[in-house]
From TrEMBL:
Keywords: Signal. It comes from the Bacteria. The keyword Coiled coil does not apply. This is TIGR00156 family protein. SUPFAM superfamilies: Hypothetical protein YgiW. Residues 25-47 are annotated as: Disordered. Pfam families: BOF. It comes from Photorhabdus bodei. Residues 1-23 form the signal peptide. Residues 25-40 have a biased composition (Polar residues).
Amino acid sequence: MMKKIFITTALITLFSMPSMAQASQTQFGGFSGPDSTQPPVQAAPQGGFVDQNARVSTTQQVKNMRDDSWVVLEGHIESRIHSDHFIFRDNAGIVEVEVDHKYWNGQTITPQDRVRLEGEVDKEWNGMTVDVKKVTKLN
């Protein structure tokens, strides 16, 4: 009897794994454009606080800010550099941004989409990036 229960449980687990993997994949969005490594996927948006008074910075201003400064940028993610690093462009120039998979929140972003990125300036000895904590599609 115990053997039948064990085998049944093992088979259910084995056959449900592909559907669980697919479900977890659709939970994340991401970048869909040049050098993109993942197909676009859609998921339900998640809520949170929206600060309508947040001051938008330009890429040029960000380059002169201190490490760990909080910034808001509006523009376009043009391409993937590698892994979770991207080129972001606004009217003032370009800056490298890092967007961890969990911050896409199911949104698929292309180079044509205008986005708002919120995050922290991350200055290292060899360069500077913006460590993005929130991605909002504006159009």
